[in-house]
UniProtKB/TrEMBL annotation, chain A:
GO terms for biological process: transmembrane transport. One of its GO terms (cellular component) is plasma membrane. InterPro entries: MetI-like, MetI-like_sf. It comes from Gracilibacillus halotolerans. This is Multiple sugar transport system permease protein. It is a multi-pass membrane protein. CDD domains: TM_PBP2 (cd06261). It comes from the Bacteria. It is found in: Cell membrane. PROSITE patterns: ABC_TM1. Residues 69-284 form the ABC transmembrane type-1 domain. The keyword Cell membrane applies. PANTHER family: BLR7065 PROTEIN, SPERMIDINE_PUTRESCINE TRANSPORT SYSTEM PERMEASE PROTEIN.
Automatic annotation (TrEMBL), chain B:
Keywords: Cell membrane, Membrane, Sugar transport, Transmembrane, Transmembrane helix, Transport. This is Multiple sugar transport system permease protein. SUPFAM superfamilies: MetI-like. InterPro entries: BP-dep_ABC_trans_perm, MetI-like, MetI-like_sf. It comes from Gracilibacillus halotolerans. Gene3D superfamilies: MetI-like (1.10.3720.10). One of its GO terms (biological process) is transmembrane transport. One of its GO terms (cellular component) is plasma membrane. It comes from the Bacteria. Belongs to the binding-protein-dependent transport system permease family. The chain crosses the membrane at residues 12-32, 76-97, 118-138, 144-163, 184-206, 243-262.
UniProtKB/TrEMBL annotation, chain C:
Residues 24-48 are annotated as: Disordered. Belongs to the bacterial solute-binding protein 1 family. The lineage of its organism: Bacteria, Bacillati, Bacillota, Bacilli, Bacillales. PROSITE patterns: PROKAR_LIPOPROTEIN. This is Multiple sugar transport system substrate-binding protein. Residues 1-22 form the signal peptide. PANTHER family: ABC TRANSPORTER PERIPLASMIC-BINDING PROTEIN YCJN-RELATED (PTHR43649:SF34), ARABINOSE-BINDING PROTEIN-RELATED (PTHR43649). Residues 24-43 have a biased composition (Low complexity). The keyword Signal applies. Keywords: Signal, Sugar transport, Transport. It holds the Pfam family SBP_bac_8. The keyword Protein biosynthesis does not apply.
Length: 291, 277, 435
């Protein structure tokens, strides 16, 4: 590769993307950093002043905050993990030859194409303890004899919401990985066939290595997206009952909508910090700078 | 084909595919059934899996008095422009990130990512003020700009991933044959990258088609998009299930149809690419 | 061949799109210039045309949104000052409406007038966003058409002696019940709190003898909004919002928990919101539930004669929640005089009558209250009977957060047995009265 010589082209190529993003986001992020060191609560605008680290200290003493952190971890690990596994399987299936493949591909996009408003309401309706179809099905199949109050008790609410986010995210992984699969050249598989490789060997020796970067990136992007997602939890349970489904992003959302911006900015920055620790090792490893 | 291989196909293809698809499609089916059920059947003593009295009144109402076409058009407009703008600038940025070595690459790459980590709800007040000061408020363009801020970082990263997985040898061969970098990109890289660009495009399109938080703030009656219109159906006096579910069905279908055509194109793009490659 | 089809489709698509954009853009740009000229220079020579007002409102269903547009059209045609109101509908979004309104107004893009909820008053007045209406009301010829205690509530909400909210309509909560279920269970309409609790117990029935409850005595609301009916239980034991940790308040809370634990309400009560309690009542799942006249038309449509109402009965104390919707004028509006014409049209003139008759809300205008429609309706009567002891949750700057998150989560934990009544009340008291 060419080294040392200064090349203006890469900067020109990234500048349009960078400018649009910078136009909108940098100012609010910097503002958030400032707000997090103030008791910036618009409900009490006269009292706003610098308070140092008080927001952060308060966070560490806040029981609800810790519940939210714990919930965020479960939400992200289970949510993204299972989305990925099912999405990957679906991508492999959709990459095979069969009749009606085009239609099946289009149809499997449905969860993702559903507006957020509707996802929460529809699933809430499916889970309903009195008229819900899920309870009805389980009772008809004689699996249960009493309806389960899926969203109304702390023992089942969170898992029910996680199932919904898994449902919504499977198509994302499936479509993204499917696109990657299609860029792998056939010759590699043909060569492997000649060597008499089994299907599983081909999966682990050709498919997964050739998609390494795509897999990493989809997972990182999805972790970020899922940990920041509010609408599904918000419309299904509002974070309840008894805070059992409240993740950090829902807590941030709740605090921000009552205009306690100092506290919610602090939490948002902390969440960003946690996400960055997940993503940065990957960036460091795979984008070593030449100069 | 032998019997054995058919049985084999059942276990490795049809069965798992059927299970996953059932999980994915059932809620959609349920939405549809709800949209054609009269209200008394919704809260009836028994759950019905196909309505006893079927009614399409909600669909008529949606397009008749409710004028659902306007928000559909607005959503289409915003989603299309966002997709085109985002894909153009992100492909060029991703190409730079994977094919050049330059100072600050890691920092720029991280910058794009931190942006997606910041919760939207904290962007609302400053963004509203920015949009107002540049006179974009209540125009479709305000949404394009707002959406681009989270679709661009996403797409830059996604496309970087795809490009990193494409061997450099492809275009280097073309460049040795005398094509310049630009020509090599358009003739060799782009066709192979096409499926990935389309997949990313689908993501951008859906995100901007369905986004609510920014849309409610940056649009007015004339520029309202679908999610805001659907949300208008949930008032303090309950959910208008019939209209809401019908609206949902009508929102989902165009996206799937669009993708159906896009993925056909995707296969053709691929064969074209591999012939050249 | 396929490829050709795709290309044609894409081409058609884009041509259509750009055609439409061009077409739709030109009128909308002119619109904007119009409204901005109107906003920025109010004393312009505008050909005898009056000012244009932007009005943001939410509608609880699509019929109400048509109704509001009709009222606006009628006002625009009939007012003699040439005022044009432009109505912009925003989703209620479970209260998100108020957040959108706030974001827009601190960002400098407030409308002239908007519909409003009492609980948000401290937030908006603390940021100096609302116009003071004292002088306007003082000089208003219909001032006395609205009961003084309503003005007092508006003053309490702002925490000052000034009025920032123009009354529009109210809703008083009462108990809906099913006479047929009462008859089956052999209970009379309760007149005391104790009788009410007994009625809840007795109307919880297993009608088909399979050992499972088929009809629950009461539909309890544990999600956001449930603090209103809950307040009636607290007050019936002699407690109050001002001291939620008093023995009496805790007794009321204990009643609430007992009703849940004894299985007199559906187990989903911890997360049941408005939709659920109404659905349960309308499907015959519950014998009683608490709501206001906004749902009465729907109830009658479902049950005909088999639904009726009584006011929440008195125990050691008596209280019911008064809901409300107001209109506000923004401080940034350039046309406050015109805006007042519009809000007073909604408060005491034709706009008041049209809106309340069609929606079944309780009018604030005495003249409108006198109409036969309101005098003869049994649900209206239950509302008006409740007026004398109706109140509101104390309005502080903490109230919104308390209603949205603290109350529902704490109540759920108490109902599910994670917290005792006094622990829960401790948290609720602190959350509401925190300084």
């Amino acid at each position: 590769m060419k080294k040392k010589k200064f090349n203006i082209w890469p900067y020109i190529l990234i500048s349009p993307a960078l400018l649009i993003v910078a136009f909108v986001v940098f100012y609010p992020i910097i503002e958030a950093i400032f707000m997090s060191f103030q008791n910036y609560d618009l409900r009490r605008p006269d009292k706003i002043s610098f308070i140092g680290l008080k927001n952060y200290i308060e966070m560490f003493q806040d029981e609800i905050f810790w519940t939210a952190v714990k919930n965020t971890l479960i939400w992200v690990i289970l949510g993204v993990g299972l989305q990925f596994i099912f999405g990957f399987i679906l991508a492999l299936l959709l990459n095979q030859q069969f009749k009606g493949r085009g239609i099946v591909r289009a149809v499997s996009l449905i969860p993702w194409a559903t507006p957020g408003v509707l996802i929460g309401l529809m699933w809430k309706w499916i889970y309903d303890g009195n008229y819900g179809v899920l309870n009805d099905l389980l009772m008809k199949l004689n699996i249960i004899d009493q309806p389960i109050m899926f969203l109304s008790q702390t023992s089942t609410a969170f898992s029910s919401v996680i199932v919904t986010i898994i449902w919504q995210g499977i198509p994302f992984f499936a479509i993204m990985i499917l696109a990657g699969l299609q860029s792998i050249s056939h010759e590699m598989y043909e060569a492997a066939d000649i060597d008499g490789a089994t299907k599983l060997q081909k999966l682990f020796r050709i498919t997964i290595p050739s998609l390494k970067n795509v897999i990493f990136i989809t997972i990182i992007l999805r972790i970020i997206w899922v940990s920041n997602s509010v609408d599904i939890i918000y419309s299904m349970t509002g974070g309840g009952p008894s805070y059992s489904t409240q993740t950090l992003s829902v807590y941030i959302f709740n605090k921000a909508t009552v205009l306690d911006l100092g506290y919610s900015s602090g939490m948002a920055l902390l969440l960003m910090f946690m996400l960055a620790t997940v993503a940065i090792p990957y960036i460091r490893k795979s984008f070593k700078e030449g100069a | 084909m032998s019997k054995k291989s058919f049985a084999n196909k059942c276990f490795t293809l049809y069965l798992p595919l059927g299970l996953i698809l059932t999980f994915l499609i059932f809620p959609f089916y349920w939405t549809f059934v709800t949209s054609i059920k009269p209200e008394h059947e919704l809260y009836g003593a028994t759950v019905t899996y196909w309505p006893k009295d079927l009614t399409f009144a909600s669909y008529q109402k949606l397009f008749g008095e409710f004028n659902f076409l306007l928000p559909m058009f607005n959503s289409l407009l915003v989603a299309t422009i966002t997709t085109v703008v985002t894909l153009t600038v992100s492909t060029s940025a991703a190409y730079a990130f994977t094919r050049f070595d330059f100072k600050g690459k890691r920092i720029f790459m991280s910058l794009f990512l931190t942006n997606n980590m910041f919760p939207n709800v904290l962007l609302l007040i400053p963004l509203f003020a920015i949009m107002r000061s540049v006179n974009l408020l209540y125009t479709p363009l305000s949404l394009v700009v707002a959406y681009a801020t989270f679709t661009i970082p996403f797409s830059v990263w996604m496309l970087t991933g795809y490009l990193k997985d494409l061997p450099n040898s492809l275009e280097e061969a073309a460049m040795i044959d005398g094509a310049n970098r630009v020509k090599a990109f358009f003739n060799v890289v782009l066709p192979v990258l096409m499926p990935s660009i389309i997949a990313t495009g689908v993501y951008i399109f859906i995100q901007s088609w369905n986004e609510y938080t920014f849309a409610v703030l940056f649009t007015n009656e004339a520029t309202r998009t679908i999610p805001v219109t659907l949300n208008n159906l949930i008032g303090q006096l309950g959910v208008q299930w019939d209209l809401l579910t019908a609206g949902g069905i009508i929102t989902i279908i165009p996206v799937c149809v669009l993708f159906f055509f896009a993925q056909k194109q995707l296969i053709e793009g691929l064969t074209a690419g591999s012939v050249k490659g | 061949m396929k490829r050709l089809l795709v290309i044609t489709l894409v081409a058609l698509f884009s041509v259509g799109l750009f055609g439409c954009t061009a077409a739709s853009n030109s009128p909308s740009t002119t619109d904007e210039t119009d409204s901005s000229t109107n906003k920025n220079t109010n004393s312009e020579s505008d050909d005898g045309e009056g000012p244009t007002l932007t009005y943001w409102y939410w509608a609880d269903n699509s019929d109400y949104s048509d109704l509001m547009q009709n009222i606006i059209t009628e006002f625009n045609e009939t007012n003699d000052k040439g005022i044009t109101v432009v109505g912009e509908e925003y989703p209620w979004d479970g209260g998100g409406f108020m957040e959108t309104l706030f974001t827009a107004s601190v960002g400098g893009g407030a409308p002239d007038v908007a519909t409003f909820k009492l609980t948000s008053t401290p937030l908006f007045t603390a940021n100096d966003l609302l116009a003071n209406l004292d002088d306007y009301i003082e000089n208003w010829d219909k001032k006395d058409d609205i009961d003084p205690n309503i003005y007092d509530i508006m003053k309490t909400a702002s925490g000052t002696d000034s009025i920032y909210l123009m009354p529009w309509n109210t809703q008083v909560l009462y108990v809906y019940y099913r006479p047929s279920i009462f008859e089956e269970a052999g209970v009379e309409v309760p007149t005391t709190y104790e009788e009410f609790l007994t009625a809840i117990e007795k109307t919880t029935m297993d009608t088909d003898g399979d050992g499972q409850t088929d009809i629950y005595g009461f539909g309890m609301r544990g999600a956001t909004g449930g603090q209103e009916p809950w307040g009636s239980f607290i007050h019936a034991r002699g407690g109050s919002f001002d001291d939620l940790t008093s023995e009496a308040s805790i007794r009321g809370m204990q009643d609430f928990i007992d009703i849940y634990e004894n299985g007199y309400v559906p187990k989903t009560a911890t997360t049941d919101g408005f939709n659920e309690i109404i659905a349960n009542f309308k499907s015959g799942h519950t014998a009683m539930t608490i709501h206001h006249t906004g749902s009465s038309a729907d109830m009658v449509e479902t049950f005909g004669d088999d639904v009726s109402a009584f006011p929440f009965p008195a125990g050691e104390g008596q209280w019911t929640s008064m809901g409300d919707t107001e209109n506000v004028i923004f401080e940034s509006s350039e046309h406050k005089d015109a805006a007042f014409e519009w809000v007073s049209y909604l408060a005491a003139e034709k706009g008041q009558e049209d809106w309340t008759v069609a929606t079944g809300n309780v009018p604030v205008s005495k003249t409108v209250q006198e109409l036969d429609f309101f005098q003869e309706n049994e649900f209206m009567k239950a509302s008006i009977d409740g007026m004398s002891y109706a109140g509101i949750v104390p309005i502080k700057d903490t109230t919104t957060e308390w209603i949205n998150t603290i109350w529902p989560n704490t109540i759920a934990s108490a109902l599910l047995g994670e917290r005792s009544a006094d622990e829960a009340m401790e948290i609720l008291h602190e959350g509401l009265h925190e300084e």
